[in-house]
Protein backbone atom coordinates (compact mmCIF):
# COMPACT_ATOMS: atom_id res chain seq x y z
CA UNK A 1 0.00 0.00 0.00
CA UNK A 2 2.80 2.39 0.96
CA UNK A 3 4.67 1.51 -2.23
CA UNK A 4 1.57 2.27 -4.34
CA UNK A 5 1.10 5.59 -2.57
CA UNK A 6 4.77 6.43 -3.12
CA UNK A 7 4.51 5.60 -6.85
CA UNK A 8 1.39 7.77 -7.16
CA UNK A 9 3.26 10.62 -5.51
CA UNK A 10 6.15 10.28 -7.98
CA UNK A 11 3.71 10.23 -10.90
CA UNK A 12 1.98 13.36 -9.59
CA UNK A 13 5.31 15.16 -9.18
CA UNK A 14 6.52 14.16 -12.67
CA UNK A 15 3.23 15.24 -14.25
CA UNK A 16 3.30 18.58 -12.39
CA UNK A 17 6.90 19.25 -13.44
CA UNK A 18 6.11 18.36 -17.06
CA UNK A 19 3.02 20.59 -17.03
CA UNK A 20 4.90 23.59 -15.59
CA UNK A 21 7.82 23.11 -18.00
CA UNK A 22 5.53 22.70 -21.00
CA UNK A 23 3.34 25.71 -20.15
CA UNK A 24 6.37 27.98 -19.75
CA UNK A 25 7.88 26.72 -23.01
CA UNK A 26 4.60 26.89 -24.89
CA UNK A 27 4.04 30.50 -23.83
CA UNK A 28 7.59 31.28 -24.97
CA UNK A 29 7.03 29.49 -28.30
CA UNK A 30 3.86 31.48 -28.96
CA UNK A 31 5.54 34.79 -28.13
CA UNK A 32 8.55 34.16 -30.40
CA UNK A 33 6.44 33.33 -33.47
CA UNK A 34 6.97 36.93 -34.60
CA UNK A 35 10.74 36.41 -34.51
CA UNK A 36 11.91 36.90 -38.14
CA UNK A 37 13.94 33.69 -37.89
CA UNK A 38 11.05 31.54 -36.66
CA UNK A 39 10.12 30.45 -40.18
CA UNK A 40 13.43 31.37 -41.77
CA UNK A 41 16.20 29.23 -40.23
CA UNK A 42 19.83 30.29 -40.65
CA UNK A 43 23.25 28.65 -40.25
CA UNK A 44 23.03 25.26 -38.47
CA UNK A 45 19.23 25.45 -38.28
CA UNK A 46 19.14 25.93 -42.05
CA UNK A 47 21.63 23.09 -42.60
CA UNK A 48 19.48 20.74 -40.51
CA UNK A 49 16.30 21.93 -42.23
CA UNK A 50 17.59 21.37 -45.78
CA UNK A 51 19.11 18.01 -44.85
CA UNK A 52 15.90 16.87 -43.13
CA UNK A 53 13.80 17.83 -46.17
CA UNK A 54 16.00 15.60 -48.35
CA UNK A 55 15.57 12.73 -45.89
CA UNK A 56 11.79 13.23 -45.78
CA UNK A 57 11.72 13.04 -49.59
CA UNK A 58 13.43 9.64 -49.49
CA UNK A 59 17.07 10.66 -50.03
CA UNK A 60 18.14 8.77 -46.92
CA UNK A 61 21.86 8.76 -47.65
CA UNK A 62 22.23 12.41 -48.59
CA UNK A 63 25.24 14.33 -47.17
CA UNK A 64 27.39 11.23 -46.72
CA UNK A 65 29.93 10.84 -45.35
CA UNK A 66 28.36 12.94 -42.63
CA UNK A 67 29.86 16.38 -42.11
CA UNK A 68 27.84 16.79 -38.91
CA UNK A 69 26.49 14.19 -36.48
CA UNK A 70 23.34 12.79 -38.13
CA UNK A 71 20.89 11.92 -35.32
CA UNK A 72 19.02 15.24 -35.17
CA UNK A 73 18.63 15.78 -38.96
CA UNK A 74 17.22 12.24 -39.28
CA UNK A 75 14.89 12.90 -36.35
CA UNK A 76 13.79 16.15 -38.01
CA UNK A 77 13.40 14.37 -41.35
CA UNK A 78 11.15 11.82 -39.65
CA UNK A 79 8.99 14.68 -38.30
CA UNK A 80 8.77 16.24 -41.79
CA UNK A 81 7.83 12.87 -43.32
CA UNK A 82 4.84 12.62 -40.94
CA UNK A 83 3.65 16.24 -40.62
CA UNK A 84 5.05 17.78 -43.78
CA UNK A 85 7.59 20.56 -43.96
CA UNK A 86 7.04 23.42 -41.54
CA UNK A 87 8.63 25.04 -38.54
CA UNK A 88 5.95 25.15 -35.86
CA UNK A 89 5.48 21.39 -35.34
CA UNK A 90 9.20 20.52 -34.94
CA UNK A 91 9.62 23.45 -32.54
CA UNK A 92 6.56 22.25 -30.60
CA UNK A 93 8.02 18.73 -30.44
CA UNK A 94 11.27 20.33 -29.28
CA UNK A 95 9.57 21.94 -26.28
CA UNK A 96 7.88 18.63 -25.45
CA UNK A 97 11.32 16.97 -25.38
CA UNK A 98 12.62 19.85 -23.27
CA UNK A 99 9.73 19.41 -20.84
CA UNK A 100 10.51 15.69 -20.56
CA UNK A 101 14.13 16.62 -19.81
CA UNK A 102 12.89 18.64 -16.82
CA UNK A 103 11.15 15.49 -15.56
CA UNK A 104 14.39 13.54 -16.08
CA UNK A 105 16.27 16.16 -14.04
CA UNK A 106 13.87 15.49 -11.18
CA UNK A 107 14.34 11.72 -11.47
CA UNK A 108 18.15 11.95 -11.72
CA UNK A 109 18.28 14.35 -8.75
CA UNK A 110 16.05 12.00 -6.76
CA UNK A 111 18.25 8.99 -7.55
CA UNK A 112 21.49 10.86 -6.85
CA UNK A 113 20.37 12.51 -3.62
CA UNK A 114 16.76 12.81 -2.50
CA UNK A 115 13.35 13.85 -3.93
CA UNK A 116 13.48 17.47 -2.66
CA UNK A 117 16.73 18.08 -4.53
CA UNK A 118 15.27 16.60 -7.71
CA UNK A 119 12.13 18.74 -7.41
CA UNK A 120 14.04 21.98 -6.85
CA UNK A 121 16.49 21.26 -9.70
CA UNK A 122 13.61 20.44 -12.05
CA UNK A 123 11.72 23.62 -11.12
CA UNK A 124 14.85 25.67 -11.80
CA UNK A 125 15.13 23.91 -15.18
CA UNK A 126 11.51 24.79 -15.98
CA UNK A 127 12.40 28.48 -15.97
CA UNK A 128 16.06 28.49 -17.06
CA UNK A 129 16.22 30.86 -20.03
CA UNK A 130 18.71 28.87 -22.14
CA UNK A 131 16.45 25.82 -22.00
CA UNK A 132 13.61 28.02 -23.27
CA UNK A 133 15.86 29.20 -26.08
CA UNK A 134 17.35 25.90 -27.24
CA UNK A 135 14.18 23.83 -26.81
CA UNK A 136 12.49 25.93 -29.50
CA UNK A 137 15.39 25.79 -31.97
CA UNK A 138 16.03 23.35 -34.84
CA UNK A 139 19.34 22.43 -33.24
CA UNK A 140 20.76 19.28 -31.68
CA UNK A 141 20.84 20.70 -28.15
CA UNK A 142 17.55 19.52 -26.65
CA UNK A 143 18.05 16.02 -28.07
CA UNK A 144 21.58 15.93 -26.60
CA UNK A 145 20.29 16.91 -23.16
CA UNK A 146 17.42 14.41 -23.35
CA UNK A 147 19.57 11.42 -24.39
CA UNK A 148 22.25 12.34 -21.85
CA UNK A 149 19.81 12.62 -18.93
CA UNK A 150 17.85 9.52 -19.90
CA UNK A 151 21.08 7.56 -20.25
CA UNK A 152 22.42 8.75 -16.88
CA UNK A 153 19.12 7.80 -15.24
CA UNK A 154 19.49 4.19 -16.46
CA UNK A 155 23.11 4.22 -15.32
CA UNK A 156 21.99 5.22 -11.82
CA UNK A 157 19.37 2.46 -11.87
CA UNK A 158 22.09 -0.03 -12.88
CA UNK A 159 24.41 1.10 -10.08
CA UNK A 160 21.56 0.36 -7.68
CA UNK A 161 20.26 -2.92 -9.19
CA UNK A 162 23.12 -4.33 -11.33
CA UNK A 163 20.49 -5.48 -13.85
CA UNK A 164 22.04 -6.08 -17.27
CA UNK A 165 19.07 -4.48 -19.04
CA UNK A 166 19.69 -1.17 -17.27
CA UNK A 167 23.33 -1.13 -18.40
CA UNK A 168 22.33 -1.98 -21.97
CA UNK A 169 19.75 0.84 -21.98
CA UNK A 170 22.39 3.26 -20.70
CA UNK A 171 24.66 2.15 -23.54
CA UNK A 172 21.93 2.54 -26.18
CA UNK A 173 21.09 6.06 -25.04
CA UNK A 174 24.76 7.01 -24.81
CA UNK A 175 25.26 5.76 -28.36
CA UNK A 176 22.33 7.93 -29.51
CA UNK A 177 23.75 10.91 -27.60
CA UNK A 178 27.12 10.34 -29.31
CA UNK A 179 25.65 10.40 -32.82
CA UNK A 180 23.84 13.60 -31.83
CA UNK A 181 27.00 15.24 -30.44
CA UNK A 182 30.24 13.23 -30.64
CA UNK A 183 31.63 14.97 -27.51
CA UNK A 184 29.79 12.31 -25.48
CA UNK A 185 32.23 9.71 -26.81
CA UNK A 186 34.93 11.05 -24.49
CA UNK A 187 33.06 9.51 -21.56
CA UNK A 188 33.08 5.98 -23.07
CA UNK A 189 36.73 5.07 -22.24
CA UNK A 190 36.41 6.79 -18.86
CA UNK A 191 33.32 4.73 -18.04
CA UNK A 192 35.07 1.53 -19.16
CA UNK A 193 38.01 2.41 -16.87
CA UNK A 194 35.48 3.07 -14.08
CA UNK A 195 33.87 -0.34 -14.62
CA UNK A 196 37.20 -2.14 -14.52
CA UNK A 197 38.75 -0.42 -11.51
CA UNK A 198 35.89 0.87 -9.36
CA UNK A 199 34.36 -2.54 -8.61
CA UNK A 200 37.40 -4.15 -6.99
CA UNK A 201 35.30 -6.56 -4.96
CA UNK A 202 33.94 -8.09 -8.15
CA UNK A 203 36.08 -10.72 -9.96
CA UNK A 204 37.80 -9.54 -13.16
CA UNK A 205 35.54 -11.78 -15.26
CA UNK A 206 32.46 -10.02 -13.86
CA UNK A 207 33.94 -6.57 -14.52
CA UNK A 208 34.77 -7.55 -18.11
CA UNK A 209 31.19 -8.76 -18.44
CA UNK A 210 29.99 -5.28 -17.39
CA UNK A 211 32.14 -3.75 -20.15
CA UNK A 212 30.78 -6.15 -22.79
CA UNK A 213 27.17 -5.49 -21.76
CA UNK A 214 27.78 -1.73 -21.97
CA UNK A 215 29.28 -2.12 -25.45
CA UNK A 216 26.29 -4.19 -26.57
CA UNK A 217 24.26 -1.03 -25.96
CA UNK A 218 26.59 1.72 -27.09
CA UNK A 219 28.13 0.18 -30.22
CA UNK A 220 25.15 -0.35 -32.62
CA UNK A 221 24.33 3.35 -33.18
CA UNK A 222 28.01 4.18 -33.73
CA UNK A 223 28.60 1.22 -36.05
CA UNK A 224 25.48 2.07 -38.08
CA UNK A 225 26.77 5.61 -38.72
CA UNK A 226 30.31 4.42 -39.50
CA UNK A 227 29.01 1.80 -41.96
CA UNK A 228 26.84 4.39 -43.72
CA UNK A 229 29.91 6.62 -44.04
CA UNK A 230 32.00 3.73 -45.40
CA UNK A 231 29.54 2.15 -47.84
CA UNK A 232 27.34 5.09 -48.86
CA UNK A 233 29.90 7.86 -48.31
CA UNK A 234 32.94 5.90 -49.56
CA UNK A 235 35.10 7.13 -46.68
CA UNK A 236 36.06 5.93 -43.21
CA UNK A 237 34.61 8.65 -41.00
CA UNK A 238 33.88 8.23 -37.29
CA UNK A 239 30.42 9.81 -36.93
CA UNK A 240 31.24 13.16 -38.63
CA UNK A 241 34.19 14.78 -40.37
CA UNK A 242 33.85 18.35 -39.05
CA UNK A 243 35.90 17.46 -35.97
CA UNK A 244 39.28 18.42 -37.42
CA UNK A 245 38.03 21.78 -38.68
CA UNK A 246 36.44 22.62 -35.31
CA UNK A 247 39.59 21.50 -33.48
CA UNK A 248 41.69 23.88 -35.56
CA UNK A 249 39.21 26.74 -35.07
CA UNK A 250 39.62 26.30 -31.32
CA UNK A 251 43.41 25.81 -31.42
CA UNK A 252 45.33 28.23 -33.61
CA UNK A 253 47.31 31.40 -33.06
CA UNK A 254 44.26 33.57 -33.80
CA UNK A 255 41.75 31.53 -31.73
CA UNK A 256 39.89 33.51 -29.07
CA UNK A 257 38.39 30.50 -27.27
CA UNK A 258 34.76 31.01 -28.26
CA UNK A 259 34.48 31.89 -31.94
CA UNK A 260 34.21 29.33 -34.76
CA UNK A 261 36.14 31.57 -37.14
CA UNK A 262 39.72 32.02 -38.31
CA UNK A 263 41.28 34.69 -40.57
CA UNK A 264 42.07 32.26 -43.40
CA UNK A 265 38.51 30.88 -43.47
CA UNK A 266 35.50 32.85 -44.65
CA UNK A 267 33.39 34.03 -41.69
CA UNK A 268 30.09 32.85 -43.21
CA UNK A 269 28.79 29.32 -42.54
CA UNK A 270 29.02 28.10 -46.13
CA UNK A 271 32.16 30.11 -46.90
CA UNK A 272 34.01 28.62 -43.93
CA UNK A 273 32.99 25.10 -44.96
CA UNK A 274 34.12 25.76 -48.54
CA UNK A 275 37.46 27.33 -47.58
CA UNK A 276 38.31 24.51 -45.17
CA UNK A 277 38.09 22.05 -48.07
CA UNK A 278 39.83 24.22 -50.67
CA UNK A 279 42.76 25.23 -48.43
CA UNK A 280 43.38 21.63 -47.32
CA UNK A 281 43.35 20.40 -50.93
CA UNK A 282 45.60 23.21 -52.14
CA UNK A 283 48.13 22.63 -49.35
CA UNK A 284 48.18 18.87 -49.94
CA UNK A 285 48.24 19.30 -53.72
CA UNK A 286 45.47 16.79 -54.40
CA UNK A 287 41.77 16.07 -54.11
CA UNK A 288 41.06 14.87 -50.57
CA UNK A 289 38.48 12.62 -48.97
CA UNK A 290 36.47 14.25 -46.15
CA UNK A 291 38.37 12.22 -43.53
CA UNK A 292 41.66 13.49 -45.00
CA UNK A 293 40.41 17.08 -44.84
CA UNK A 294 39.53 16.57 -41.18
CA UNK A 295 42.94 15.00 -40.50
CA UNK A 296 44.68 17.94 -42.22
CA UNK A 297 43.00 20.42 -39.87
CA UNK A 298 43.63 18.24 -36.82
CA UNK A 299 47.31 18.31 -37.76
CA UNK A 300 47.27 22.10 -38.12
CA UNK A 301 45.78 22.39 -34.63
CA UNK A 302 48.32 20.00 -33.11
CA UNK A 303 51.18 21.78 -34.92
CA UNK A 304 50.13 25.00 -33.20
CA UNK A 305 50.01 23.28 -29.80
CA UNK A 306 53.49 21.77 -30.26
CA UNK A 307 55.08 24.93 -31.69
CA UNK A 308 53.56 27.35 -29.16
CA UNK A 309 52.82 25.38 -25.98
CA UNK A 310 52.80 28.42 -23.67
CA UNK A 311 50.40 30.33 -25.93
CA UNK A 312 48.18 27.27 -26.10
CA UNK A 313 48.25 26.87 -22.31
CA UNK A 314 47.11 30.49 -22.00
CA UNK A 315 44.33 29.82 -24.51
CA UNK A 316 43.21 26.77 -22.51
CA UNK A 317 43.07 28.83 -19.31
CA UNK A 318 40.94 31.35 -21.16
CA UNK A 319 38.54 28.61 -22.29
CA UNK A 320 38.31 27.24 -18.74
CA UNK A 321 37.45 30.76 -17.56
CA UNK A 322 34.74 30.96 -20.24
CA UNK A 323 33.33 27.61 -19.08
CA UNK A 324 32.67 29.23 -15.69
CA UNK A 325 31.52 32.58 -17.07
CA UNK A 326 27.91 33.70 -16.86
CA UNK A 327 27.67 35.20 -20.35
CA UNK A 328 25.88 33.02 -22.88
CA UNK A 329 28.06 33.16 -25.99
CA UNK A 330 26.08 32.73 -29.21
CA UNK A 331 27.09 30.21 -31.86
CA UNK A 332 24.23 30.43 -34.38
CA UNK A 333 21.36 32.91 -34.23
CA UNK A 334 22.45 35.63 -31.85
CA UNK A 335 20.92 34.88 -28.44
CA UNK A 336 20.48 38.59 -27.71
CA UNK A 337 18.43 39.04 -30.90
CA UNK A 338 16.19 36.13 -29.84
CA UNK A 339 15.68 37.74 -26.42
CA UNK A 340 14.28 40.84 -28.17
CA UNK A 341 11.27 38.71 -29.21
CA UNK A 342 10.94 36.69 -25.97
CA UNK A 343 9.45 38.52 -22.96
CA UNK A 344 10.02 35.45 -20.76
CA UNK A 345 13.74 35.39 -21.51
CA UNK A 346 14.00 39.07 -20.59
CA UNK A 347 12.96 38.27 -17.00
CA UNK A 348 16.24 37.99 -15.04
CA UNK A 349 15.26 34.93 -12.99
CA UNK A 350 18.30 32.72 -13.44
CA UNK A 351 21.62 32.99 -15.17
CA UNK A 352 24.46 30.55 -15.72
CA UNK A 353 26.71 32.48 -13.33
CA UNK A 354 24.33 31.95 -10.40
CA UNK A 355 23.77 28.29 -11.28
CA UNK A 356 27.47 27.42 -11.52
CA UNK A 357 28.29 29.39 -8.35
CA UNK A 358 25.67 27.44 -6.40
CA UNK A 359 26.69 24.18 -8.12
CA UNK A 360 30.35 24.51 -7.12
CA UNK A 361 29.33 24.89 -3.49
CA UNK A 362 26.85 22.03 -3.90
CA UNK A 363 29.66 19.80 -5.18
CA UNK A 364 31.85 20.77 -2.20
CA UNK A 365 29.19 19.92 0.39
CA UNK A 366 27.62 16.89 -1.33
CA UNK A 367 28.05 13.29 -0.25
CA UNK A 368 30.88 11.77 -2.34
CA UNK A 369 29.28 8.36 -2.77
CA UNK A 370 29.95 6.17 -5.80
CA UNK A 371 26.95 7.37 -7.83
CA UNK A 372 28.03 10.99 -7.36
CA UNK A 373 31.62 10.21 -8.39
CA UNK A 374 30.46 8.87 -11.78
CA UNK A 375 28.55 12.13 -12.38
CA UNK A 376 31.70 14.11 -11.53
CA UNK A 377 33.63 12.00 -14.05
CA UNK A 378 31.05 12.68 -16.75
CA UNK A 379 30.96 16.42 -16.04
CA UNK A 380 34.75 16.75 -16.04
CA UNK A 381 35.22 14.69 -19.20
CA UNK A 382 32.46 16.50 -21.09
CA UNK A 383 33.78 19.91 -19.98
CA UNK A 384 37.23 18.86 -21.23
CA UNK A 385 35.75 17.91 -24.61
CA UNK A 386 34.39 21.46 -24.93
CA UNK A 387 37.54 23.22 -23.74
CA UNK A 388 39.60 21.25 -26.28
CA UNK A 389 37.58 22.94 -29.03
CA UNK A 390 35.83 26.23 -28.17
CA UNK A 391 33.32 27.36 -25.57
CA UNK A 392 29.83 28.74 -26.10
CA UNK A 393 26.37 28.51 -24.54
CA UNK A 394 25.21 25.74 -26.82
CA UNK A 395 28.06 23.31 -26.16
CA UNK A 396 27.88 23.53 -22.38
CA UNK A 397 24.12 22.86 -22.20
CA UNK A 398 24.43 19.10 -21.43
CA UNK A 399 26.25 20.10 -18.23
CA UNK A 400 23.47 22.43 -17.07
CA UNK A 401 21.05 19.75 -15.73
CA UNK A 402 23.76 18.42 -13.41
CA UNK A 403 24.79 21.92 -12.37
CA UNK A 404 21.14 22.57 -11.48
CA UNK A 405 21.07 19.42 -9.35
CA UNK A 406 24.19 20.47 -7.45
CA UNK A 407 22.82 24.03 -7.20
CA UNK A 408 19.73 22.54 -5.53
CA UNK A 409 22.04 20.65 -3.15
CA UNK A 410 23.66 23.98 -2.18
CA UNK A 411 20.34 25.79 -1.63
CA UNK A 412 18.89 23.03 0.56
CA UNK A 413 22.20 22.67 2.45
CA UNK A 414 22.13 26.39 3.34
CA UNK A 415 18.47 26.18 4.39
CA UNK A 416 19.28 23.17 6.55
CA UNK A 417 22.12 25.07 8.26
CA UNK A 418 19.73 27.91 9.08
CA UNK A 419 17.19 25.41 10.45
CA UNK A 420 19.94 23.83 12.57
CA UNK A 421 20.89 27.36 13.72
CA UNK A 422 24.41 26.91 12.35
CA UNK A 423 24.37 30.50 11.15
CA UNK A 424 28.14 30.79 10.75
CA UNK A 425 28.21 27.89 8.25
CA UNK A 426 25.22 29.28 6.35
CA UNK A 427 26.50 32.87 6.16
CA UNK A 428 30.03 31.75 5.22
CA UNK A 429 28.66 29.60 2.40
CA UNK A 430 26.58 32.54 1.12
CA UNK A 431 29.70 34.72 1.06
CA UNK A 432 31.64 32.02 -0.82
CA UNK A 433 28.81 31.63 -3.34
CA UNK A 434 28.68 35.44 -3.66
CA UNK A 435 32.41 35.53 -4.42
CA UNK A 436 32.02 32.80 -7.03
CA UNK A 437 29.08 34.72 -8.53
CA UNK A 438 31.16 37.91 -8.84
CA UNK A 439 33.91 35.90 -10.57
CA UNK A 440 31.41 34.17 -12.89
CA UNK A 441 30.00 37.56 -13.93
CA UNK A 442 33.40 39.15 -14.56
CA UNK A 443 34.42 40.04 -18.12
CA UNK A 444 38.20 39.73 -18.35
CA UNK A 445 38.14 39.06 -22.11
CA UNK A 446 35.42 41.44 -23.29
CA UNK A 447 32.94 38.75 -24.29
CA UNK A 448 29.92 40.39 -22.65
CA UNK A 449 29.47 43.19 -25.16
CA UNK A 450 26.56 42.63 -27.53
CA UNK A 451 27.46 43.05 -31.20
CA UNK A 452 24.31 44.85 -32.38
CA UNK A 453 26.02 45.49 -35.69
CA UNK A 454 26.07 41.75 -36.46
CA UNK A 455 22.48 41.37 -35.25
CA UNK A 456 21.28 44.02 -37.71
CA UNK A 457 23.32 42.58 -40.61
CA UNK A 458 21.86 39.14 -39.94
CA UNK A 459 18.31 40.55 -39.87
CA UNK A 460 19.00 42.48 -43.06
CA UNK A 461 20.21 39.33 -44.83
CA UNK A 462 17.12 37.47 -43.67
CA UNK A 463 14.75 40.15 -45.06
CA UNK A 464 16.75 40.54 -48.27
CA UNK A 465 16.68 36.81 -49.04
CA UNK A 466 12.91 36.66 -48.48
CA UNK A 467 12.33 39.62 -50.82
CA UNK A 468 11.45 42.15 -48.08
CA UNK A 469 13.93 44.65 -49.48
CA UNK A 470 12.76 47.83 -47.74
CA UNK A 471 13.01 46.15 -44.32
CA UNK A 472 16.41 44.78 -45.31
CA UNK A 473 17.67 48.26 -46.21
CA UNK A 474 16.49 49.59 -42.83
CA UNK A 475 18.39 46.85 -40.97
CA UNK A 476 21.59 47.33 -42.98
CA UNK A 477 21.46 51.08 -42.32
CA UNK A 478 21.03 50.41 -38.59
CA UNK A 479 24.10 48.16 -38.75
CA UNK A 480 26.06 50.95 -40.42
CA UNK A 481 24.97 53.35 -37.68
CA UNK A 482 26.73 51.01 -35.22
CA UNK A 483 29.77 50.55 -37.47
CA UNK A 484 30.09 52.65 -40.65
CA UNK A 485 33.25 50.70 -41.61
CA UNK A 486 31.44 47.35 -41.86
CA UNK A 487 32.01 46.21 -45.45
CA UNK A 488 29.77 43.14 -44.94
CA UNK A 489 26.84 45.47 -44.21
CA UNK A 490 27.74 47.74 -47.14
CA UNK A 491 28.03 44.82 -49.57
CA UNK A 492 24.75 43.33 -48.40
CA UNK A 493 23.08 46.75 -48.74
CA UNK A 494 24.51 47.13 -52.25
CA UNK A 495 23.27 43.67 -53.25
CA UNK A 496 19.80 44.54 -51.94
CA UNK A 497 19.79 47.75 -54.00
CA UNK A 498 20.59 45.66 -57.10
CA UNK A 499 17.58 43.42 -56.31
CA UNK A 500 15.44 46.55 -55.91
CA UNK A 501 16.51 47.83 -59.33
CA UNK A 502 18.55 50.72 -57.90
CA UNK A 503 21.93 50.32 -59.64
CA UNK A 504 23.17 53.85 -58.87
CA UNK A 505 22.57 53.41 -55.14
CA UNK A 506 24.27 50.02 -55.34
CA UNK A 507 27.23 51.50 -57.22
CA UNK A 508 27.69 54.20 -54.58
CA UNK A 509 27.61 51.67 -51.74
CA UNK A 510 30.04 49.24 -53.40
CA UNK A 511 32.49 52.05 -54.12
CA UNK A 512 32.30 53.07 -50.46
CA UNK A 513 32.99 49.47 -49.44
CA UNK A 514 36.03 49.27 -51.74
CA UNK A 515 37.30 52.59 -50.39
CA UNK A 516 37.17 51.21 -46.82
CA UNK A 517 38.65 47.82 -47.72
CA UNK A 518 39.43 46.66 -51.24
CA UNK A 519 37.39 43.43 -51.21
CA UNK A 520 36.45 40.85 -53.84
CA UNK A 521 32.72 40.81 -53.10
CA UNK A 522 32.24 44.55 -53.73
CA UNK A 523 34.54 44.53 -56.78
CA UNK A 524 32.62 41.64 -58.29
CA UNK A 525 29.18 43.20 -57.78
CA UNK A 526 30.46 46.57 -59.04
CA UNK A 527 31.75 44.77 -62.14
CA UNK A 528 28.25 43.39 -62.74
CA UNK A 529 26.75 46.91 -62.55
CA UNK A 530 29.38 48.34 -64.91
CA UNK A 531 28.65 45.50 -67.32
CA UNK A 532 24.91 46.28 -67.23
CA UNK A 533 25.71 49.90 -68.12
CA UNK A 534 27.95 48.73 -70.98
CA UNK A 535 31.15 50.01 -69.37
CA UNK A 536 33.09 46.95 -70.48
CA UNK A 537 36.64 48.07 -69.62
CA UNK A 538 35.67 49.13 -66.10
CA UNK A 539 33.70 45.92 -65.67
CA UNK A 540 36.61 43.70 -66.74
CA UNK A 541 39.02 45.65 -64.52
CA UNK A 542 36.79 45.01 -61.49
CA UNK A 543 36.52 41.32 -62.30
CA UNK A 544 40.28 40.94 -62.75
CA UNK A 545 40.95 42.63 -59.40
CA UNK A 546 38.26 40.49 -57.75
CA UNK A 547 39.79 37.30 -59.15
CA UNK A 548 43.21 38.20 -57.73
CA UNK A 549 41.73 38.96 -54.29
CA UNK A 550 39.07 36.26 -54.09
CA UNK A 551 40.92 33.42 -55.80
CA UNK A 552 38.88 30.72 -54.04
CA UNK A 553 35.55 32.56 -53.92
CA UNK A 554 33.10 30.72 -56.23
CA UNK A 555 30.86 33.79 -56.52
CA UNK A 556 33.69 35.71 -58.19
CA UNK A 557 34.07 33.03 -60.88
CA UNK A 558 30.30 32.77 -61.21
CA UNK A 559 29.88 36.46 -62.00
CA UNK A 560 32.92 36.50 -64.28
CA UNK A 561 31.49 33.49 -66.09
CA UNK A 562 28.15 35.25 -66.55
CA UNK A 563 30.02 38.35 -67.77
CA UNK A 564 31.85 36.35 -70.46
CA UNK A 565 28.61 34.60 -71.43
CA UNK A 566 26.95 37.95 -72.16
CA UNK A 567 30.13 39.13 -73.87
CA UNK A 568 29.72 36.18 -76.30
CA UNK A 569 32.93 34.46 -75.17
CA UNK A 570 31.56 30.98 -74.34
CA UNK A 571 34.89 29.24 -73.77
CA UNK A 572 36.01 31.78 -71.14
CA UNK A 573 32.53 31.71 -69.62
CA UNK A 574 32.64 27.90 -69.35
CA UNK A 575 36.13 27.96 -67.83
CA UNK A 576 35.06 30.35 -65.05
CA UNK A 577 31.72 28.67 -64.35
CA UNK A 578 33.41 25.25 -64.12
CA UNK A 579 35.94 26.78 -61.71
CA UNK A 580 33.05 28.17 -59.66
CA UNK A 581 31.62 24.64 -59.35
CA UNK A 582 35.00 23.28 -58.21
CA UNK A 583 35.10 25.80 -55.35
CA UNK A 584 31.94 24.52 -53.61
CA UNK A 585 29.52 27.40 -54.29
CA UNK A 586 26.61 28.24 -52.06
CA UNK A 587 23.75 25.84 -52.99
CA UNK A 588 21.57 28.77 -54.10
CA UNK A 589 23.95 29.33 -57.07
CA UNK A 590 24.39 25.72 -58.17
CA UNK A 591 21.29 25.38 -60.38
CA UNK A 592 22.10 28.66 -62.13
CA UNK A 593 25.69 27.55 -62.77
CA UNK A 594 24.54 24.24 -64.29
CA UNK A 595 21.89 25.99 -66.41
CA UNK A 596 24.35 28.51 -67.80
CA UNK A 597 26.94 25.81 -68.46
CA UNK A 598 24.32 23.73 -70.27
CA UNK A 599 23.41 26.65 -72.57
CA UNK A 600 27.07 27.51 -73.17
CA UNK A 601 28.04 23.93 -74.07
CA UNK A 602 25.15 23.93 -76.55
CA UNK A 603 26.62 27.07 -78.15
CA UNK A 604 29.92 25.30 -78.80
CA UNK A 605 28.10 22.09 -79.84
CA UNK A 606 29.21 19.87 -76.94
CA UNK A 607 25.89 18.09 -76.62
CA UNK A 608 26.74 15.47 -73.97
CA UNK A 609 28.27 18.08 -71.67
CA UNK A 610 25.22 20.29 -72.21
CA UNK A 611 22.86 17.43 -71.29
CA UNK A 612 24.83 16.63 -68.14
CA UNK A 613 24.55 20.18 -66.80
CA UNK A 614 20.97 20.82 -67.90
CA UNK A 615 19.85 17.66 -66.10
CA UNK A 616 21.38 19.07 -62.92
CA UNK A 617 19.82 22.52 -63.34
CA UNK A 618 16.66 21.44 -61.52
CA UNK A 619 13.11 22.63 -62.07
CA UNK A 620 13.86 26.35 -61.68
CA UNK A 621 14.22 26.78 -65.45
CA UNK A 622 11.09 26.00 -67.47
CA UNK A 623 12.87 25.66 -70.83
CA UNK A 624 15.20 22.87 -69.65
CA UNK A 625 12.79 20.00 -70.46
CA UNK A 626 12.07 21.49 -73.91
CA UNK A 627 15.82 21.82 -74.65
CA UNK A 628 16.52 18.26 -73.50
CA UNK A 629 13.69 16.88 -75.66
CA UNK A 630 15.08 18.70 -78.71
CA UNK A 631 18.46 17.05 -78.15
CA UNK A 632 17.09 13.49 -78.43
Automatic annotation (TrEMBL):
One of its GO terms (biological process) is lipopolysaccharide biosynthetic process. It comes from the Bacteria. Coiled coil: none annotated. GO terms for molecular function: pentosyltransferase activity. It is a multi-pass membrane protein. The chain crosses the membrane at residues 71-87, 92-109, 115-134, 141-159, 165-196, 208-232, 347-364, 371-391, 397-415, 427-446. PROSITE patterns: TPR (PS50005), TPR_REGION (PS50293). TPR repeats lie at residues 453-486, 487-520, 554-587. Keywords: Cell membrane, Glycosyltransferase, Membrane, TPR repeat, Transferase, Transmembrane, Transmembrane helix. It is found in: Cell membrane. SUPFAM superfamilies: TPR-like. Its main location: membrane. GO terms for cellular component: plasma membrane. SMART domains: TPR (SM00028). Residues 68-222 form the Glycosyltransferase RgtA/B/C/D-like domain. PANTHER family: MANNOSYLTRANSFERASE YKCB-RELATED, MEMBRANE PROTEIN. This is Glycosyltransferase RgtA/B/C/D-like domain-containing protein. It comes from candidate division TA06 bacterium DG_78.
Amino acid sequence: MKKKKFQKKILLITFTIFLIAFCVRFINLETVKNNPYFDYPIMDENYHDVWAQEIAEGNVFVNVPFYRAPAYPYFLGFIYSIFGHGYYIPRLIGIIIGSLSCVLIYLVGKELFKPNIGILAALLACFYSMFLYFDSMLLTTNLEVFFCLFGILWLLFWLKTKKNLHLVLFGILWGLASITRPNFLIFVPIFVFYLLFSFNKEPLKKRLQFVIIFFIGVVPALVAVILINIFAGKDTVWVAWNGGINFYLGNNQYANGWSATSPELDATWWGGYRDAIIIAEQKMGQKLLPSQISNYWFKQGFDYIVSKPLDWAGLMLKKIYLMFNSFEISNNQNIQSFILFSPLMRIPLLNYGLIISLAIWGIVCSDKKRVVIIIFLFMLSYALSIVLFFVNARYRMPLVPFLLIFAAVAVLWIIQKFVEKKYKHAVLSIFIIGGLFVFANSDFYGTHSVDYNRIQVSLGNRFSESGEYNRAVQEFKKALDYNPQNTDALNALGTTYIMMGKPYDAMRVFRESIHINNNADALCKLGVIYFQFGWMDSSQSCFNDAMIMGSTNPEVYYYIGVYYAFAKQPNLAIKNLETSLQYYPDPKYINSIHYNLGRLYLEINKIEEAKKHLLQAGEDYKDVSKILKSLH
